[in-house]
Every structure is written in structure tokens, then in C-alpha cells.
Amino acid sequence: MRDAIALALENNLDLAYFRYNLPIAQTDLLRTKAGGAANGVNTSIAQGTQGGFSSSGTGSGGGSSSGVTAAGAGGLVTSTLGNGAPINSFDPQLSVQGFVDHTTLTQVNTIQYGVPILKQNTIELASSYSQAFSLGTSFNVTDYGVRQTTNSIYNILSPELTTNFNLTINQPLLQGFGLGTNERFMHIAKKNIQLTDLGFKAQVIATITQVENIYWDLVNAYQDAQIKERSLAYANETLSDDQKQFQLQNVPAMQVMKDQAAVATSEGDLTVARATLRLNELLIKNALTKTIEDPALAEMPVVPLDLTGASDPNADKPVNVLITDAEKNRPDVSEDQIAMQIAQDNLRTIKNELLPRLSLYGQFIGAGFGGQLNPVCALNTECTTTLPSGFSGAFQNTFNYSSPEYQVGFSLNVTLRNRVAKADQFRAVLDYRQKELTFEQQKKSILLDVRNSQYALQQAQARVTAAEQARDLAQKTFDISKQEQKLGAMSSYDTLTSEQALAIAESAVFVAQSAFEKAKVDIDRATGETLDRMGISIDDAKSGVVTHLQP
């Protein structure tokens, strides 16, 4: 059993599939740290492996973070989770743009520029840097420089140099203000990581439970095949003895025919038992390996070594203790609690959308100018300048407050009636009420699940006791039949019939024992103790490499 569990942790495809959800949840957190919406992570248990399912189920997580949409009767039903004021990107954005331009314009009137054909050469380079923060604050810095030459005789400077610097800071005061509003997706992503970890634990429990059930089905099939082989051997032995006695005319031909019928029946039973064994061997290979395409692996027999499991104290524990253990250990309970926390946070953040959009902003603009004297300037004595001739001087003037502009203002935007936000907020309250009911329903389901598992365990234990008593009686009957056959009081066919009854009783014992072992597996699942009982490290399950497994 321990070897089977170790192989399942390393090779089972359901676990391998779910492991991808762990880094997916981390990428979601990375996305939300930049202000993006959480895409969500699917925490549903994968059950692609065949076999090993019990009537009580394998237990699945009650919470899911698989996005915000679900299939509805009329199409897509969209959740209000994450609704609220728009969030700007927290990642800095840098933009650079430049161009070179040559323009030739025919002038109808030469008074403005002094030439019939105006020619201009322009080189411009602009850059901007913007970023937003968790409080809603955002700023934008823009800087550009222009160099322009012209053949106009009325321009003092050619080339003419212009630089400009613009700093704008904006702060929302109502809608869009606060860490709770702007980091809401980040909080959801962090909760989703917790949900994914719990979902992985639920996946490990489901997979290990399934592997254990497959293993005990294999044990039952293996023992049943051995019983059928022994029964066929005894039937052949009885037929051989009776054929010899028939040749000596000590038994009638009818008895030999009955023996032949018994042999045929035993052969059919053995064929069915071997086919069942081969099927269960294939199922456990499928659960413990990544592929079964190798013909040698498909044909390789599997021999179970542990024919009985360890004792389980849960059969005698008070049900209140079992329910307490289940509420403490089961991952789906924690998943539902986290889902309730997410819903509570959503109630708080979605209220921000009801507020008006009021923002306060401040702006500083600085400009610098420079250039060289125009060699074709026709303004005579006015063709002089004190401006710097190069870009360095013009850029310096941008920040020396020679041409500053300051501006402080506010922006108010009120959505009258605001029915969309009101509807979202009211629906979020209704969704929360539904989650409360789901949470209470989950508690009831756990209570019923635990009680049902304990009842099933007690019933299975009683069936094992009854089957063992029936087997002991069948064994005594068979022993007495053999003794009476030796004394001549019973025929060999009567003894064969007793042996067949013994084989049926032994098969019933193994069936009952298998059901008992699976009931122990199920109550461990119901109470969330599967990993502790089997000594499984969740870190080993995450890595897919078993470093230790407690005996």
C-alpha cells in the first residue's frame, strides 16, 4: 500500500494536472500587483483516473476561485466579485516618440513670412512617464524638445529651440480612493492562492482515497482468484478420483457427470475471477503510472502485499468528536471560510462605486527657449537675442522658473441615479446571503457525511464478523464431510458441494473485508485525516518527489 501511494504521488496524472494550478495562482497574484483583474484559478478536483469510486464519493472542495462567470439558463451569469471603481496600472509606463519633418508651403501673401515659398525643417522628440499607486494617486511627466529651422526673414531665430516639461498629479478623493478599492484584486488573488493550496490538498485526499479503493479492489480480486483456483483444483481432483472409482464400478456414472459439471462451473468462475483480476491490475497501473502504452507493463502482473489494513479508531469515536475533526481538517471547510471572507471584502469595496468621482489635481509646466540668430533675418536692429544658443541652455531654462505655469483644480463627476452601481451593490448583498446559506448547507453535509461514513464502517465491520462466522461453519462442514466420506457415510460429490460452499463463504469474507477496508478509507476522507493517517507530506505531493513516507 505504501509503495502504491508513493507511486501515485509521483506519477498520478490527476495530481500532475492540478499541480499546474499552483503556479497559475502565483501568476494571477503577479497580474493583480500591476492593477490587473484576477483571472481566477480552477480548484475543482480532477478525477480522470478510472476505478476506485465509492458510493459516498471522494469529497471535493466546496470553494472555488474559477473566475467570475458561470453558465446560466439564459447564457452567462456574471458575478459582482471584483466590481468597483476602475484601477489604473501600477506598472510604470514609458513612452518615447520622435519625428523629422520637412514642410514646403507656397505663400499667397508674403507679409507674414516675407518669402513666397516657406520652408521649414522640424525635429521633435517627446517622452512621457506615468504611474499609479494603491491609494489611487497617479502622476504623469511629459517632456519634449523641438528644433525648427525656417527660411522666413521675419524669424529672429533659426534654428529655433523649444523645450517643455509638464508634471501632473491626480488624487481621487471619493470613488477610487483607498487601498481597499485599488488593491481588491490583489486581495482576491492572495485568497485564491490559499484556495488553490487547499484545493490541492483536497485533490491529494481524493486521489489517495481513490488509489486505496483501487488497491483493496485488487486485493479482493487477487484473493478471489486464488480461491477459484483452489476450488477448481479440488473439483479436478474429485473428478479424477471418481473416474477411477467408476472404472472399478464403485460409483455410478451420474456421480462422474456431476463432477464434470462442477469442474465446468469452477472453470467458468475462475475465468471470470481472472478477468476481474486483470481489470483491477490495469486500473491500479493506470492510477500509478504516467502511461501504460508499454505492452510489457500492461501485461505485467501486480501482486498486493498488504492483504489487511491497520486498525482504525474512528469506528468507536463519538460522532461529535469526528465532526469536530472534520471541521478542523477538511480542506473544503477552510475553502468555504475563505470564500466567505472574499464575499465580505467584496461587500466593502463595491460600496466605493456608489460615490461620486471627485478628484484633486495639480500641474506644473516649465518651458525653455533658445536658438541661433537667423542668418536671413530682415528685422535689422531687432535681430538680436539673449536666449541660449543650444539645447542645454534651453533645457536649463525649463526648470529655472523663467516661464513657469502652476495650476491646481478639481474634477467632479456625479452619475445621477447611478442605477448600475446600486444594482451591483444590492446584488453583492444577495450573493453574500446565498453564500451564507451555502456555508450552512456545507456544515450539514459534513455532518451527514461523517455520520454516514461511521455507520458504513460499523456495518462493514459487522458484515466481516458475520462472514467470518459463516466461513468457519463452512470450514467445519467441509472437514466433517471429508471425515464422513472416508467412513463411507457421504459421497465425494457431497464433499465437493461442501468445498464449493466453503469457497463461496471465503469469497464473501474477502468481499466483506474489502468493503471494511474501503469504509475505513472513506471515514478518513470524511474526517480529513487521510494524509495524517498515511503519513503523506503535502510538500512531497506538490513537488511530485516522495522524500519520506511514514510507515
UniProtKB/TrEMBL annotation:
Q: Where is the signal peptide?
A: none
| Pfam family of the protein (one) | OEP
Q: What is this protein called?
A: TolC family protein
Q: Where are the transmembrane segments?
A: none
Keywords annotated in UniProt? Cell outer membrane, Membrane, Transmembrane, Transmembrane beta strand, Transport
Q: Name one GO molecular function term.
A: efflux transmembrane transporter activity
Q: Which PANTHER family does this chain map to?
A: OUTER MEMBRANE PROTEIN TOLC, TO APRF-PUTATIVE OUTER MEMBRANE EFFLUX PROTEIN OR SECRETED ALKALINE PHOSPHATASE-RELATED
